[in-house]
Recover the amino acids of this structure.
DNA sequence: TACAAACTGGTACAAGCGTACCAATCTGGG
DNA sequence: CCCAGATTGGTACGCTTGTACCAGTTTGTA
């Protein structure tokens, strides 16, 4: 049931997952019904209950897929931008105390990578947070939520390392939390200063890392 | 319709709002139906559509009420705790550069004030965030969301002032965002270290305020 | 005390929901 | 080639939902 034996079945399950993720992004939680998903995926209604035990299971699986994509996209956007700034940056571990990318540039890369840059992406991120919050009520979703948090934190750590900053675990945690807070604010309200705020705040934080925690 | 002319009407509207807020906290968005609210409030079904034009309007009004209560409760918890530490603290503006409450103590007051300390409160805060996110989809909710953000920021600024810290606007923004991020994490997942993390992070941040932004 | 307005409460409706069911069809391994 | 098991697709059931409706009752005021 989880992994269909036949090729066409696998494609259908996949299409359902994609349709679920799309609907989740477009209209949030409430818009994801068996009927809507089936129609979007171009399969009959009954296929949804055939490939997923229940609506909740479908949503959980779609959430997982969205997380995968989001993490990958964020990482890619960041490294692409950073490497444009410092093309010779080696992929190996950063040397302690050597901030190779200026704080402001790194902060700009952070903002560009984390904040949504179009309406579709904004809605995707909105959906991710909705699912995340839902985990506060539904224990079945909690492991996924925790996994998302962990991967975000690991990504933050990695992005810092890539840009040449060596940070304590507490700093990573702080930066991640602040970035989350700012990102949510940017996603929900649309205030004009979201990018500027994040750049300012992150670069301030990175500035301090050198004087207080660098070699 | 918004403000009933008769006494009993006002009481009913109030009871509906309370019931709505309760249900919102207990089961989130999905659990708030006309029927559930009416039953909880002890009024007939039709009263819900009599006092509120629609379900959305009822929910928005309940959201507003929850925000009021949350802001008030958080502020009260913080000042109560701080004044226990520094009973002579005057309510006037803090003198520049003088950090009167040790960073660690202030951080502990922050954590105690912001993080939920029982299950009911956890669910209330969860509901607040759910509503906030919903504002990302529903423009009608956006002014309320913005108002919440603004009041939270003002509260952060005020709490810093009370404890004797003078911070730039950027610092207030950063601290607020980080606190939001940490609070959401604590509310959704229940990791054991939520309080410790917040104390550590906030006190680090406050430590830095003295050396870099004080007098 | 009369009367318009505010309010009550019971009921009805159409729509959408998750899920179950099942006869018909397809498909891959023996 | 054949058949057990995988898959299909159409339909149906029981339930909940938001909202509309309206004949009655209560209320504040003139």
């Amino acid at each position: 049931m989880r992994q269909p034996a036949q090729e066409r079945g696998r494609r259908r399950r996949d299409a359902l997952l994609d349709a679920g993720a799309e609907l989740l992004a477009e209209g949030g939680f409430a818009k994801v019904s068996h009927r809507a998903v089936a129609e979007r995926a171009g399969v009959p209604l009954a296929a949804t209950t055939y490939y997923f035990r229940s609506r909740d299971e479908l949503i959980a699986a779609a959430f997982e897929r969205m997380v995968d994509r989001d993490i990958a996209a964020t990482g890619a956007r960041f490294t692409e931008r950073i490497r444009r700034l410092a093309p010779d940056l080696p992929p190996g571990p950063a040397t302690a105390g050597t901030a190779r990318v200026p704080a402001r540039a790194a902060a700009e890369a952070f903002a560009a990578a984390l904040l949504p840059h179009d309406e579709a992406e904004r809605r995707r991120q909105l959906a991710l947070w909705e699912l995340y919050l839902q985990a506060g009520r539904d224990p079945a979703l909690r492991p996924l939520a925790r996994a998302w948090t962990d991967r975000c934190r690991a990504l933050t750590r990695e992005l810092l390392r890539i840009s040449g900053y060596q940070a304590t675990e507490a700093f990573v945690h702080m930066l991640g939390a602040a970035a989350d807070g700012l990102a949510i604010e940017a996603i929900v309200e649309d205030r004009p200063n979201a990018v500027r705020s994040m750049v300012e705040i992150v670069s301030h934080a990175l500035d301090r890392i050198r004087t207080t925690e660098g070699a």
